[in-house]
Amino acid sequence: MFILSIVFMLALVGFSSGTLPKHLDPLAPDTIYFNGKVITMDEDAANAEAVAVKDGKIIAVGSNNEISKLKGSSTKIVDLENKILLPGFYDAHSHFPSSGMDGTVQVNLNSPPVGPIKTIDDLIIALKDRGMETHEGEWILGRGYDQTLLAEKRHPTSDDLDKVSTELPIYIAHTSGHLAVANSAALKIAGITKGTPNPSGGVIVKDPKTGEPTGVLEESAMGLVSKHIPNVTEEENLAAFKKAVQDYISKGVTTSIIAGASKQGLVDLQKYQKQGLLPLRVTAMGSGWGGVISPGELGGFVTGFGSDMLKLGPVKMSHDGSIQGYTGYLSQPYHVPPGDDPNYRGYPAQSREELTKRVVELHKAGYQIAIHGNGDAAIDDILYAYRTAQEKYPRKDARHRIEHSQMARLDQLDQMKELGVTPSYFVSHTFFWGDQHRDTFMGPERAAMMSPLKSSIERGIKFSIHLDTHITPMDPLQAVWSAVNRISRSGQVIGPDQRITPLQALRAVTSDAAWQNFEENIKGSIEIGKYADFVILQENPLTIDPVKIKDIKVLKTIVNDKVIYEN
Ligand SMILES: [Zn+2]
């Protein structure tokens, strides 16, 4: 009242409101974004031209005319110049900030278009280059090789890596993150020999003739070697973090969900946030907190703890591996088996009973749970565990997740609907491994049904889509493009019947992804009361030729009404 009357008096004595400081104009928006094509992603996907924002939140959405009337003396005006304003992209599953390690701490061993490696010789040369700057006591690390894209069509072995060095330990991770190769020096440090038994949930691959380890380590066997790798230095950590931030915000990401953060990872994020270095919002799934996850090991914090900038998300678990690594757990054999066993179906990370026991415990403690499941046999076990947990301790709207859900069958989608389970699909698989799935891993029929988005929509199942960075590069528009086109590397359409519309795909990187993370009231659409987290695009993904969606330029990324990236 007092302030209003002062405004009134000033007006009477002839001051123009244009000279009023902000505290005397308390109701005016801080910012008006106008003259744009605003795709709100609200329930009706309504269009608008302008948005008014105050204190980091949206206070009005409408036409240029309506919104411009709200302008106060201190309001900043942003002319969108007819460009596209969308809610900021919501990355539902990736591994921020570890993508920043690629090309810094770890040699980039990806094949085109992500990296330069075409043959095992290329890989050896790249590692040798790194070896020149590696000192005694240090390791040579690499990441991202994909045997299906190497000319030799096989995994590198410790013999190959010994051509780089037999003195320095070498450890390189497969693009899927579910396999790795160690050289003889690294195997020696880990004490792995002919006689070492497989750990539970993993395989030390051995030569069928000699019985010697080949250097290839699957799933939990990777840990036998990786636990000996020295920690990165603080400078390396910070450099990788900064690189990852740029990778994400330059692609329009305003929220990222880390699909499994260590306790140290979270401590680092909090430190960087305090230093003002974390411009995007991050939700961390708890995982790896001392190996076996139990509610006690999360210190009693449950899903939702934290702030809207840095939050604890679901508990992350894994129940199988990667299909292109032959470690995805299937109900029917692989199309072309990896060895002599025609019935090879991959394997689970633990028994159904062990999985269910943990899930029941975490569910009872109030967590949202997210379990990695690529193969349909893994998904069977995960659904069994979720069903058992709900029968024992019914909880409405738990929104338990299945990560990747790559080979989910239609009967499993029916169960997801019934149980209120929500998948997060690793949809860019159709581009990166669609050809290999059709020809080698799954065969044409099953490959056509990978990432069954259309069937999910038909059943009213809400889902998100993701890129699992650093498995594939961060780019939500690439995920949207894959969901809409399902085009493979060779240009074939993998499973045309499962293509969805651009609007449906955009929901899976905005409103539905926010819903999946219990944030539908604060993020994911441009509606009154939600955060002013936006991305501004050069062209409209709803009207552009669908094959060009991935080429649309991100012009600006905005969090809390603040520009965090500008092209
Ligand atoms: Zn992942």
UniProtKB/TrEMBL annotation:
<dbReference type="Pfam" id="PF07969">
    <property type="entry name" value="Amidohydro_3"/>
</dbReference>
<dbReference type="InterPro" id="IPR032466">
    <property type="entry name" value="Metal_Hydrolase"/>
</dbReference>
<dbReference type="InterPro" id="IPR033932">
    <property type="entry name" value="YtcJ-like"/>
</dbReference>
<dbReference type="GO" id="GO:0016810">
    <property type="term" value="F:hydrolase activity, acting on carbon-nitrogen (but not peptide) bonds"/>
</dbReference>
<dbReference type="InterPro" id="IPR013108">
    <property type="entry name" value="Amidohydro_3"/>
</dbReference>
<dbReference type="InterPro" id="IPR011059">
    <property type="entry name" value="Metal-dep_hydrolase_composite"/>
</dbReference>
<protein>
    <recommendedName>
        <fullName>Amidohydrolase 3 domain-containing protein</fullName>
    </recommendedName>
</protein>
<feature type="domain" description="Amidohydrolase 3">
    <location>
        <begin position="76"/>
        <end position="565"/>
    </location>
</feature>
